[in-house]
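Request: Not sure, any thoughts?
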Amino acid sequence: MPHNTRSRVITEGAQRSPNRAMLRAVGFGDTDFDKPIVGVANGFSTITPCNKGLNDLALEAERTLKQAGAMPQMFGTITISDGISMGTEGMKYSLVSREVIADSIETAVQGESMDGVIAIGGCDKNMPGAMIAMARMNVPAIFVYGGTIKPGRFQGRDLTIVSAFEAVGQYTAHRIDEAELLEVERHACPGAGSCGGMYTANTMSSAFEAMGMSLPYSSTMAAEDDEKRASTARSAEVLVEAVKAQIRPRDIITRKSIENAIAVIMAVGGSTNAVLHFLAIAHAAQVDLTIDDFEWMRGRVPVLCDLKPSGRYVATDLHRVGGVPQVMRMLLDHGLLHGDCITISGQTVAEVLRDIPPTPRADQDVIRQWENPMYAQGHLAILKGNLSPEGSVAKITGVKTPRITGPARVFESEETCMAAILERRIQPGDVVVIRYEGPRGGPGMREMLSPTSALIGEGLGDSVGLITDGRFSGGTYGMVVGHVAPEAFAGGAIALVQEGDSITIDADRRLLQLNISEDELARRRAAWQQPAPRYVRGVLAKYAKLVSTASRGAVTD
């Protein structure tokens, strides 16, 4: 073991005896003090099925670290269930939890001078939170994804959590009855694991695998399958080797490896939240990345996978037919990956993919053949215009109406919008505006899965536009635009929209435009006054004071 491990300070100097005494109480013996101390950041929680199975994985990591010659120190970190808090005031804490997770991991690892850390997480913010901490600390680290949930089944079709949200709109529109609504709810989430489509959790796990901070195939394994435990053990072994070799996160998280991650996000049809999170990860790693880089990548990379929310299949189907390595090999062979990027195992991306078939199996259509992609270009577009001069994020593939110009229906919160949808007050051709839900104004930038799912459930997904300075769930699809920046609370143009104004969303031109004159816009801006903060104490108030604009990743440092 190298003599430059940070925990070696416990064996030297005047504080040696007190430090050792404390460590003996938690299981250290005479022969353990020269071993590297490796943190196990355990996101276990019964708050959400995403994190329900993590403690078993953490215990497996702990056992394996000991066998590999390290001394594990387990500590906990928090989670918020996006799916459970969705549509409530509690959802304001979801993005905040990304920062709490990052801060808690940094605090424990740095405070105890650990030599490395294995972070085990499940729900959406666990992953970017852990990766932000890893990039900040720059001690050897690996991420273990708790795994995806298996699909529910009802009436011969696969269900996910989004099925339950859409069923609410279907019920309101009298397209299903109350009995079917209840059965969808009962069957949508059959066990442990994160939401099953290519929603935010599976998007981020896939991206971390592509970036080299997680092991091959680990991002699409089911939480309840034995291979997830075996992959966790192998991750612990690889981390100990990385500690020995001093392979650090910033050796891995580079501009080129982030481009690899973005390429995979585009190819699998991933979540809009990936834009926000990778801007924040790049900031933590001191990598130069802007929101416009996503648009540049979008134009180069096709969508290769037919995955929910807009497609047919779930993450376990992707795993069955070759997973992320198969997608990466196709991108590598077509010049869309940097094969020389190093991974946590010490291998390069090209070396990891060397034995992967160059083309996907012919007996499946989860991963399309290169010559027959789902879409020729990526799906995550950056829209700009006088409504979003800093940029906004939209999924533009698969929408039947790529351009809509219609009257604004303005709502000052998600709740007031949701009430209007359920009361059938939104009509085809409308452009719904939900504002003061941004990072500072919400605060916390809530996801708008409930309104968007209700619109789809009512059959309005292709005829109604929706824009917001909040976010969307990875399960959202349709003509919707989020992350509008500057946000309303900061005086962005979205704050100046009036009921009935004409708004254009044009996916082809990447345009988000309020159709009024510059003079009128200036007049409204001069008359606008910032509202009082919704929270003046506690974590939300602190977050609102610190958080940056969405176009910079909503970072707090």
Q: What stands out?
A: DSSP finds 20 helices and 14 strands in the chain.
